[in-house]
Structures are given as C-alpha cells and as structure tokens.
C-alpha cells in the first residue's frame, strides 16, 4: 500500500515498507493497482504512435494502443522506460541511473528507442532480445549500424538477428562495466524454443525490488501462444522459473494484450473480485491512452488463469485437473477467444 499520498509528489514513494525514488518530482503521478496490494510511481510523457504503412505482422492485434510512454523507478538506481511500438508491442529502456546508461529491450522501432534515450539523458550501450520474432528483434541490425560498439544480447538457442553476445540459461552479466545492475538469464522454451527471460536487480541493494522482462512468455492476465512447445513446456517454465522469482518482482511484458486477456480470464473465473477490479482499472488506463504495464508477479498469481491452474475454480471451468491438461485446455480456448 502507498503510505502518505503527498510523498509521491515529493519524489519518494513508500511501497510495501520500502522507498522508491522518482526521477521527476514535479510531474510524478501515482498509479494504484486495483488489487489494492501494490502501487508504483510513474512519470508520463506524451509519445504519439505512428502506424507502419502496409506492414503485416504475424501476431494478434489488440483493440487498444497506448499514446503515452512511461518511466517507472523501481529502486534508487534501477529505472524502466516503457515505449509503445508498432500496434501493440512494448519496447523498454532498462536504465542504470547511477552511470547514465541504458539497455534497450526488444527495440523493434529504433527511432523511438533512441529518442527515448535522449529524453532520459542516457547513453544506449546494449540491447536485450527476448526471442527471434521480427516484432521483437527487428530493430537490432539497424541499431548496430548506428552504434557499432553496441552489445546485442540474444538467445544461444535460436537465430536472433544482429546478435553480438549469445546468452542462455543461467548466464549472469552486466550490460555495462561498471554497472550497478545485474542481468540474470532464464530460458523458457514454448513460444519459441529459445525464448529468454531477463531478470534484473540492483547489485548489492538488499531487499530492493527487481524487474522481469518476460517477452511473449508471460503477459498481464495471460501467456504467449505455444508456437514451438506445448503445455508441458509451459508448466515447467512456470514451476521451475516463474514460481522462483520474488513475488514483488515488476513484470514488463512484450505486448499490450491486457484487456483481451482479462476478458478471457473473467470467463474462466467470473466471481474473482480482484480480477474484476483489475479489468476495470485496465480499461480506464487504455481509454486514457496509458500503458497497463508493469504488473507484479504477486498480482498475476491472483488473476492470471495460466498461473492459477491449481485453483479449483479454473479446473472446474476447463473440466480438467492435471496441471498440464489444464494449461492445454486454457490455451486451446484462448486461441479461439
């Protein structure tokens, strides 16, 4: 819970007993989670989206698009700038505030990403690519042409355009040296066989929150399609990877699919009050042109049906009880929803 509403406008937010610092004390606004368990401080900047003429993507479309970029301060030196790109994708700037450097996550529209870096006053030194699909990796080579010393991190398990540094399960690195941020790599094969998650935390900052760039493995209220895997793969990803992250981890996903995901979730659990509140909140955010990211893993376990396969309400909805079969049936129904 946020303690002391004025603190947000003074540049400090108290959340779950911890202090989070904002970058712009005069324009900071506080966004409350409808679940009433979490709140976080963000700084909104207008960032008009443009359409890509005559370009077709083999990804599903969201009904809403965000017209605002947002910057979220996670800890004193860890900050994330959300950048709406294409029709419903998200790129991000992972910012090391102490050293004024940043890594771009899935920067499919390089112009928007470099502009955001300039606005934040940071140097772009690296790229973190979650997976090979064009709408996530499509900007890598253009950025490498512009910044020849750029480090582009990509999966060692699949071909990712522009990759200069191939990484995989268990790798830990700093995208800039010296940096106060550490990046942990986890492989979650299912959406693609080489899909990566990047878990980032501030080094030596005991008790501070971390961030998870989940790409197309996990969305707010949903998960990615099982293009190159099955429900057994997804179950292992959840139980062996996602369950092990701290619950207060902030999740930044690859697409703005929130409203559609929550509509489906409501069909599965129509009496889930927290889910209803999250849906109402997300709808208002999108009507205002604002992003629905980030979420937290704690929140996701309260309303995301793909993380709630062990709940009786979900099992009854899909008429299955074995975890892998529950996930398979959820995915089957969501694919045609």
TrEMBL record:
InterPro entries attached to this UniProt entry: Clx_II_MBL, HAGH_C, Hydroxyacylglutathione_Hdrlase, Metallo-B-lactamas, RibonucZ/Hydroxyglut_hydro
A GO molecular-function annotation: metal ion binding
Transmembrane segment boundaries: none
Catalytic activity: an S-(2-hydroxyacyl)glutathione + H2O = a 2-hydroxy carboxylate + glutathione + H(+)
CDD domains xrefs: hydroxyacylglutathione_hydrolase_MBL-fold
EC number: 3.1.2.6
SMART domains xrefs: Lactamase_B
Residue ranges constituting the Metallo-beta-lactamase domain according to the UniProt record: 88-255
Domain of life: Eukaryota
Record-level GO BP terms: methylglyoxal catabolic process to D-lactate via S-lactoyl-glutathione
UniProt keyword list: Hydrolase, Metal-binding, Zinc
Alphabetical list of SUPFAM superfamilies matching this protein: Metallo-hydrolase/oxidoreductase
Cofactor: Zn(2+)
Pathway: Secondary metabolite metabolism; methylglyoxal degradation; (R)-lactate from methylglyoxal: step 2/2
Protein family membership: Belongs to the metallo-beta-lactamase superfamily. Glyoxalase II family.
PANTHER family (alphabetical): BETA LACTAMASE DOMAIN, TENZING NORGAY, ISOFORM C
Protein name per Swiss-Prot or TrEMBL: hydroxyacylglutathione hydrolase
Organism listed in the record: Galdieria sulphuraria (Red alga)
């Amino acid at each position: 819970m946020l303690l002391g509403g004025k603190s947000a406008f003074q540049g400090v937010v108290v959340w779950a007993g911890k202090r989070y610092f904002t970058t712009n004390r005069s324009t900071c606004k506080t966004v409350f989670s409808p679940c009433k368990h979490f709140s976080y401080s963000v700084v909104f900047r207008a960032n008009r989206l443009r359409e890509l003429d005559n370009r077709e993507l083999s990804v599903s479309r969201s009904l809403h698009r965000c017209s605002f970029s947002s910057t979220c301060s996670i800890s004193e030196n860890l900050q994330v700038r959300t950048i709406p790109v294409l029709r419903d994708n998200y790129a991000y700037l992972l910012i090391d505030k102490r050293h004024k450097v940043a890594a771009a996550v899935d920067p499919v529209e390089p112009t928007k990403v470099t502009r955001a870096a300039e606005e934040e006053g940071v140097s772009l030194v690296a790229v973190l690519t979650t997976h090979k699909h064009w709408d996530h990796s499509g900007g890598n080579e253009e950025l490498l042409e512009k910044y020849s010393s750029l480090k582009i991190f990509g999966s060692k398990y699949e071909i990712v355009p522009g990759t200069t540094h191939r990484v995989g399960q268990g790798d830990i690195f700093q995208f800039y040296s010296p940096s106060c941020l550490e990046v942990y790599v986890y492989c979650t094969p299912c959406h693609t066989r080489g899909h990566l998650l990047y878990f980032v935390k501030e080094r030596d900052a005991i008790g501070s929150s971390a961030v998870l760039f989940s790409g197309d493995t996990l969305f707010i209220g949903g998960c990615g399609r099982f293009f190159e895997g099955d429900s057994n793969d997804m179950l292992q990803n959840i139980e062996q990877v996602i369950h092990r992250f701290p619950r207060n981890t902030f999740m930044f996903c690859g697409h703005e699919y929130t409203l559609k995901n929550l509509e489906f979730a409501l069909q599965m659990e129509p009496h889930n009050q927290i889910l209803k509140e999250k849906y109402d909140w997300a709808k208002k955010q999108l009507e205002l042109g604002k992003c629905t990211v980030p979420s937290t893993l704690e929140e996701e376990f309260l309303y995301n049906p793909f993380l709630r396969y062990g709940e009786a309400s979900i099992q009854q909805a899909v008429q299955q009880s074995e975890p892998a079969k529950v996930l398979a049936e959820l995915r089957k129904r969501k694919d045609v929803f």
